[in-house]
Design goal:
- It is a single chain.
- Strand 6, helix 5 and strand 7 form a beta-alpha-beta unit.
- The protein is 40% helix and 16% strand.
- By secondary structure, the protein is α/β, with parallel strands linked by helices.
- It contains eleven helices and eleven strands.
- GO terms for molecular function: myo-inosose-2 dehydratase activity.
- It catalyses: scyllo-inosose = 3D-3,5/4-trihydroxycyclohexane-1,2-dione + H2O.
Amino acid sequence: MFREHAVRLAIAPIAWTNDDMPELGQGNTFEQCISEMALAGYQGSEVGNKYPRSPAVLRRALELRGLEIASAWFSAYLTVRPYEETAEAFCIHRDFLHEMGAKVIVVSEQGRSIQGQMDTPLFAEKPVFDDQEWAALAAGLGGLGRLAAEKGMTLVYHHHMGTGVQTAAEITRLMELTDPGEVSLLYDTGHLAFSGENPLEVLRGHLPRIRHVHLKDIRPEVVRQVTAEKLSFLQAVKAGAFTVPGDGCIAFGEIFAELAASPYTGWFVVEAEQDPALADPLEYAIKARRYIRELSGL
């Protein structure tokens, strides 16, 4: 289905150790995580909280297992803090990823985000940006995009539950406010479905801007519970709202077909934050790998 060498498959370490809730997977080591990624048949990884920050140390550990770094999350605060503060932290992050050979930098605006708040209802108290915040976000992302380009890298914006850029309408507004040469889009199937959007429609609407893909699925019965009981994002994760492709309700066949017919090149990253005590990371990594191979040929 996909052109040879156009797409490579990675998996995020959040299934082994959760960055937002370190108690989830606390006993899982970095070495276990990357060894099981390789055992399950993946080619790459994003960066987790237990990964060494020395490029030399990290590179050696990955090379022993035939893995590469696809990217890593960066929290921006462009709507609530001076641009210079975010830009300084971004350059440190950029330089680390550049040394690791990554081509894209995942950025998500965390100004007024509720995604890390354990008791804040996810849907009832979702932040909504005003015009001034939208302007600050767009201008700031443009600046970060230019900083990324200095190293030949691309900024990909991560729409995310519990933030000011979550819905399809908000994604469209951000794309309209930013320069395609400075800001690209990370397409995340799970966050779109969780938000009540149609992932295939969003894909078709923004395909030329998409430079990075996160593949995750949702359990619709848990998502309904989150809404009915006014749970937070973190409570939703612990309850099992997310799962790997092939274990939920998203129709990935059409999504893969659309991407395969496009000029897209880069990484697909399996990412399903679950409690590893309830969802064995290796088991689910293998389940996702088999499903993606059967459906897409990757």
